[in-house]
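User: Can you model how D-sorbitol-6-phosphate sits in this protein?
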Amino acid sequence: MNHLPFDALMELKSGVIDEASQVINRRLSDMPSFFHDQDAVQAQLEEDPVLYRTYIKQSPISPSLWSIGSSVIEPGTVGNEYFMTKGHFHLKEEAPEVYFTVSGSGRLLLQRHSGEAEVKNMAPGVINYIPGGWAHRTVNVGEKPLIFFAVWPADAGHNYGAIEEMGFTKLVVDDRGVPKIIDNPKSAPGLGK
Ligand code: S6P
Ligand code: ZN
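Assistant: Here's the modeled complex, given as C-alpha cells:
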C-alpha cells in the first residue's frame, strides 16, 4: 500500500483533533451498567452528563497502519466512582497501544482476562505503554478534564463486551477528596473471553 504522510493538529487545551474522522461522545446513559452504585446512576440519569469524548483519525484497517486519537474525560463522579471510560480489550488481542497524557490527573486500569490487574498514574508528560492482552480503562481523578493522546494498530478493533460482562477487578473511588483503589465486589474474571 502506498500511503501519504499527514499532519494533524491536537488543540492542547481542549484535546480536540482537527479533521477527526470520528468523534465519540459518551454520556452516562451510554454506559449505566459500568458504574458500581446503581442508585447513584439512577439519580444522575436525568441530568445525563457527558463523561468523555474521543476524537479519532482512523486509518484503513490494516496491520501495517496506525490509528490516532485523543480522549477528554470530564471531571466528576457517579456516586463515589470517578468518571471513566468504558474500557476494552482489543479484538485483535496482541495489539498494543500507547497513551501520552497532555493534561489533568488520572489512573489507567489494566487487566488481563485472568483478572491480573495493574493501576498506573496518568499525569502531564507520562507515557503509558499498554501491551497486547490487557484491557484498559482511564479514570479522571482530578478537578480538570483529563486529556490524553493515543496511538494503536488500525486493525486492533474494540471488545467492550468482555469488560461489560466481567467488570474490572479494581474501582477508583473518591474517598473524601482522595482517589482510592478498591476491590470491585462484582467483578468476575475470566468471563467474556
Ligand atoms: C482506542 C483507545 C482510546 C479509547 C478511548 C475511549 O483503542 O484505547 O482511544 O477508545 O479512550 O475509551 P473506550 O474504552 O470507550 O473506547
Ligand atoms: Zn484501546
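A couple of observations from the model: The longest helix spans residues 38-45. The first strand starts at residue 22 and ends at 27.
User: Helpful, thanks.
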